[in-house]
Amino acid sequence: MISGAWLLHAAAWFLPVVKDSVRLPEGLPGWQAFRLASCAVWPCDGVSFDTWYGAVLSTVSAVTTLLFIFGSPWVVARGSRPLWLASAAAAAIAFIANAHWFVLLESSRSDLRIGYFLWWLSFALLAVGLFDLAGRRTANKPM
Length: 143
Known about the structure:
By secondary structure, the protein is mostly helical. The chain is 66% helix and 8% strand. It has helices at 2-12, 30-37, 52-78, 81-97, 100-104, 114-140; strands at residues 16-20, 24-29. Helix 1 (2-12) packs antiparallel against helix 6 (114-140). The relative contact order is 0.19. The mean pLDDT is 89.
């Protein structure tokens, strides 16, 4: 499951995430969407946020992506059961937090593309995989 989560996440970087005919007719790829999501802390020309919470949620999305990319391989390779459980909970929270793109874009939901849904699902799959990994380690532990 964890490998599947990593595969989905990697694919999402290159697939269209949101319709954006200005940049690409098929949609904005994930790597550009990540850059735009981080504009609140890493300024971009011509990008501003309408609300403070939009800037915060966008930054949270960028941070969860960085933690996924750099943190999850380390957690899987070097982690212990408590770390796997904590990371699984964090991935589940990231899945819920990243739902804001779907929830808050009420009128523009149809603009979301496959890359967004694969990226979003990768957090849930990572959480399930880490919970499973922690559970299997407990089951294999001698009493």
